[in-house]
C-alpha cells in the first residue's frame, strides 16, 4: 500500500521519499522490496543503482544503472507485497485473497478478526479493503511470527489499520471485548472447528466467517460444527490458470501444429523469408504458463444465523 498522508486519509504519496519501501521490478517473476536510503545502493545483474536518484520521482518510474540497465520502481501494493514478502508460513495468493475479500463482504469501515497471521499476505489486502475507517485484528500463537508481522506492517504503512496480537485462538478463543462487534472472521488454523464457536460469538447478526483449510477432512469436520449456528455454508476451491502472451516467428503452420512432414520441409526450402505467406511469418501466441499453481486450499464460508427476538 502506498504510504498515506495523515491529513488526507484517502490520498497517497505518489513520489518516492527517504524511508519509503519500493518494489524493484526486474521482470514479472523477479522482484524485491527495498527501503530507500540517502546513501543506499542496489546492485543486481543490470548494474549499480543509487537510491539518491530515486528520491523525488514518481512510483512506477523506470530508472537506469551505471551500465545502462534498468528496473521499475513500484509502490508496495498488497498484490506486489504478496509476491515479495518473507514466507514464514504458507501464504494465500491473489486468487484466494480476492475471493475471500468478496465473499466476506469486506468494505471500508468493517471490523475483521483473523487467526492466524502467518506471513501477513491476506492481512495486508484486508487492511486496504477496510481503510480508512475500519480495522483488522489479527492473532498468531507464535510470538516471533507476530513480531515479524508487526515489522512488515510498519514497512507497508499499515500500523493504523492492523493490530497484531499473540493468542492461541484454538485454545482460548477470541477476546471477549469483540463479542457481537465484528463484521467478518477469517480462520487459517490446523483445527478450525475449535475456534468456530468463539468466532460465532464475535460476529454481528448476519456476519460472515471464512475458514481456509488445505485438506478436505478439515473442511468436513468444520462444516459439522458450522451447522449449529451458521447457514449458507459453502466450500470453494479456487484454481488460477495464467497465460503467457508473446509474438513469435512461425516457420510453417504444419510445424507449429507439431507436424514435421516431408512436404513442409520442401516448402521451407523453396520459400525465402515467407514469400508464400506462411513460412517466416509472425503471430501472437498465448499458452498456459508452466509454473501455474494448482491446489492451495479449500475456502469454506458461512453466515451467522439471525436470531429473531
From TrEMBL:
Q: Where is this region: Disordered?
A: 254-279
| Primary residence | nucleus
In terms of superkingdom, the source organism counts as: Eukaryota
Single GO molecular-function term? tRNA (adenine(58)-N1)-methyltransferase activity
Q: Which residues form a coiled coil?
A: none
- Tell me which residues bind S-adenosyl-L-methionine: 119-122, 140, 168, 188
Q: Would the keyword tRNA processing turn up in this protein's UniProt record?
A: yes
Its GO biological process annotations read:
tRNA methylation
GO CC aspect terms: nucleus; tRNA (m1A) methyltransferase complex
Record-listed E.C. numbers: 2.1.1.220
Q: Where is the tRNA (adenine(58)-N(1))-methyltransferase catalytic subunit TRM61 C-terminal domain?
A: 69-303
Enzyme class, UniProt record, top EC level: transferase
Q: Which family does it belong to?
A: Belongs to the class I-like SAM-binding methyltransferase superfamily. TRM61 family.
- Please give the name of this protein: tRNA (adenine(58)-N(1))-methyltransferase
Naturally occurring in which organism (per UniProt): Oldenlandia corymbosa var. corymbosa
Amino acid at each position: 500500500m502506498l504510504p498515506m498522508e495523515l491529513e488526507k486519509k484517502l490520498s497517497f504519496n505518489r513520489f518516492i521519499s527517504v524511508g519509503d519501501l519500493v518494489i524493484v521490478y526486474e521482470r514479472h517473476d523477479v522482484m524485491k522490496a527495498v527501503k530507500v536510503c540517502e546513501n543506499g545502493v542496489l546492485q543486481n545483474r543490470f548494474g549499480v543503482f543509487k537510491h539518491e536518484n530515486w528520491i523525488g520521482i514518481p512510483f512506477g518510474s523506470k530508472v537506469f544503472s551505471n551500465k545502462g540497465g534498468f528496473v521499475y520502481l513500484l509502490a508496495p501494493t498488497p498484490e506486489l507485497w504478496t509476491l515479495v514478502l518473507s514466507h514464514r508460513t504458507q501464504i494465500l495468493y491473489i486468487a484466494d485473497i480476492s475471493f475471500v475479500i468478496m465473499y466476506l463482504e469486506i468494505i471500508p469501515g468493517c471490523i475483521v478478526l483473523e487467526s492466524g497471521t502467518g506471513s501477513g499476505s491476506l492481512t495486508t489486502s484486508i487492511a486496504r479493503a477496510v481503510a480508512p475507517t475500519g480495522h483488522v485484528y489479527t492473532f498468531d500463537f507464535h510470538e516471533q511470527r507476530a513480531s515479524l508481522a508487526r515489522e512488515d506492517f510498519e514497512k507497508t504503512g499499515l500500523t493504523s489499520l492492523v493490530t497484531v496480537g499473540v493468542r492461541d485462538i484454538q485454545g482460548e478463543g477470541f477476546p471477549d471485548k469483540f463479542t457481537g462487534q465484528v463484521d467478518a472472521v477469517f480462520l487459517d488454523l490446523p483445527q478450525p472447528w475449535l475456534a468456530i464457536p468463539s468466532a460465532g460469538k464475535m460476529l454481528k447478526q448476519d456476519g460472515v466467517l471464512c475458514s481456509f483449510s488445505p485438506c478436505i477432512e478439515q473442511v468436513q469436520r468444520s462444516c459439522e460444527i458450522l451447522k449449529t449456528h451458521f447457514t449458507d455454508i459453502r466450500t470453494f476451491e479456487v484454481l488460477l490458470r495464467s497465460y503467457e502472451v508473446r509474438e513469435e516467428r512461425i516457420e510453417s503452420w504444419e510445424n507449429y501444429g507439431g507436424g514435421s512432414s516431408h512436404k513442409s520441409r520442401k516448402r521451407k526450402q523453396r520459400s525465402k523469408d515467407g514469400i508464400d505467406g506462411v513460412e517466416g511469418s509472425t503471430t501472437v501466441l498465448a499458452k498456459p504458463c508452466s509454473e501455474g499453481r494448482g491446489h492451495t486450499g479449500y475456502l469454506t464460508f458461512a453466515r451467522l444465523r439471525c436470531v429473531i427476538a
